[in-house]
Amino acid sequence: MHSIQNDEFVLVIDHPLIKHKLTQIRKKETGTNEFRKIVNEIGGLMVYEITRDLELENIDIETPVAPMTAEQLSGEKLVICPILRAGLGMVDGILQMLPSAKVGHIGMYRDEETLKPVEYFAKFPNKIEERLVIVVDPMLATGGSAVSAIDMVKKRGAKNIKFVCLVAAPEGVSELRKQHPDVPIYIAALDERLNEKGYIIPGLGDCGDRIFGTK
User: Fold this and answer.
1) Where is 115: in which H helix or E strand?
2) What is the mean pLDDT of the chain?
3) CB atoms < 10 A from the CB of 106, how many?
4) Cis ω for the linkage preceding 99 (within 30 of 0)
5) Which residue of 100, 111, 114, 194 is 20 to 30 Å from 48, comparing CA positions?
6) pTM (2 decimals)?
7) Using alpha carbons only, what angle is made at residue 32 by residues 31 and 36, rounded to the nearest 5 degrees?
8) What is the pLDDT of residues 91-142, one digit of tens each?
């Protein structure tokens, strides 16, 4: 039995707007266009919590009325790294809130014999070791893909990493915490369990297929 509680490394963002929008995409009758739109909207809403601890610096500016010292984000621009292909469905929503963010890409497939994720594509901005890297995948099921993706960015020098997903199973959260205890996990909904095929219950089906209209 898995027991997951909110702490500094596992945060379930249970905002009413996010809950409402999740209900819309869980419905099996929700079509591709609406599904894709809402997934992006949820990604944008989650940004507020994901970026709550970003560092600020003071700068001197002038308003139309008077000079003042104001705050702006400091350091290198952060990086959004979707796990292909379903992770792409959340990128635009996040970019609407963080338009200057860089975007990396992580591609992997599951080997049918070993059932282990295999890297087939990886492209990241420079200075990744100085940036906050947000790894994005709508579903955290067994945790295998998330663990491998974070392995990939760590291998390339990333030190400040967060993982973001829409729906997670307790099994996936436990596996990711075990393999990467230093990586905070941001979740829109923590579901009951995995079924015998590795699907999240109740979940929302295959997120990639529903985003891109494939089967």
Assistant:
1) none
2) 91
3) 25
4) no
5) 194
6) 0.90
7) 120
8) 999 999 999 999 999 998 777 677 677 889 999 999 999 999 999 999 999 9
H or E stretch covering 95: helix 88-97
Q: What is the DSSP letter of 87?
A: T
Q: Please list the active-site residues.
A: 110, 114, 206, 209
Q: Residues near 8 by Cβ (< 8 Å), separated by ≥ 6?
A: 184
21-35 per-position pLDDT tens digit: 999 999 999 999 999
Q: Would you say 141 and 86 are in contact if contact means Cβ atoms under 8 Å apart? A: no
Q: Please choose, from the candidates 27, 7, 4, 18, the residue with its C-alpha nearest in 3D space to the C-alpha of residue 188.
A: 18
d(CA 109, CA 169): 20
Most confident of 52-56, 186-190, 197-201: 186-190
Amino acid identity, residue 13? I
